[in-house]
Amino acid sequence: MTEALTIDLHTHSNRSDGSLSPGDLVARAAAAGIGVLALTDHDTTAGLDEAGGAAAMAGIRLVPGIELSASWRAQAIHILGLWIDPAGAPLRARLESQDSRRRLRMRRICARLGTLGLPGAELLAAVETQPGVPTRAHLAAAMVSGGHVGRTDEAFRKYLGKGRPAHFAADWPPLAEIVTWVREAGGIACLAHPARYALSKGARRQMLTDFAAAGGTALEVVTGANGAQHVEAAAMLAANFGLMGSVGSDFHDPRQTWNPLGRSLKLPDRVVPVWRAYGL
Predict the structure, then answer these.
(1) Is the predicted pLDDT of residue 3 greater than 60, yes or no?
(2) What is the CA radius of gyration of the chain?
(3) In this structure, are residues 26 and 38 in contact, taking their beta carbons and an 8 Å threshold?
(4) CB atoms within 10 A of CB 225
(5) C-alpha to C-alpha distance for 35 and 69, rounded to whole angstroms
(6) Chain centroid to CA 239: how far?
(7) Over residues 254-276, mean pLDDT
(8) What's the CA gap between 48 and 63, in Å, rounded?
(9) Selection from 230, 227, 229 nearest residue 219 by Cα
(10) DSSP state letters, 89-146
(11) Residue 219 — pLDDT band, cuts 50, 70, 90?
(12) Domains, the chain, ranges and CATH?
């Protein structure tokens, strides 16, 4: 990585499940010394125009991005689309379908919460007043605000997480299809946070085989608060599957002090940076 340039290619605004507006996110990134920033909200590009204007004023290079939800063997997988063209009609139509999936899932979850003695209709209304796409993070925050749980992690542990009584798996498109969406939008498909998925080593390797075969280009080698052992394992996977490497904080909220923007995002030397093709 260029020594003078700090790069963060995975962040979220309040257009999905982040807490800051796109403009405030860019301002915080500028204050942190970040020179290249990707806004990668979940299944939406709604914040890119605001972020682009703020980035131009701050002297930051904004990478237009998105984090798309996909499925692989019934596992939810996240694919970053980097350097996409958000204006294309095919992508806009596809994002409308993702939004419909999210809203249907939210309605089902809130209806189930209603059967469990919580005010499901009120919680749904609270989520739908938020800007951007509805997420379970919005719902967990509404449950905290309503006094139904003490913390957002408690909401997932008791109600919303996998195996909990109000959990519904979303019907996301297959992994290979999502990679195609990114490529047809002119972007680079990057598999996000590979250590986070509950997969065996063999299944993880098969997933990466399928990802690369579909046209996937990069792997997020350094992400969030992952430790050195995760970085090393991801770097090895990138090398084994011929994938370039990316770095991203997966920043959501400044109150999560353990995961600031640009946190220790140094790519191992043996991994080819995904940004090299863009002269960075």
Answers:
(1) no
(2) 18
(3) no
(4) 13
(5) 27
(6) 23
(7) 90
(8) 9
(9) 230
(10) HHHHHHHHHHHHHHHHHHHHHHHHHHHTTS-HHHHHHHHHTSSSS--HHHHHHHHHHT
(11) very high
(12) 6-94+171-278 (3.20.20.140)
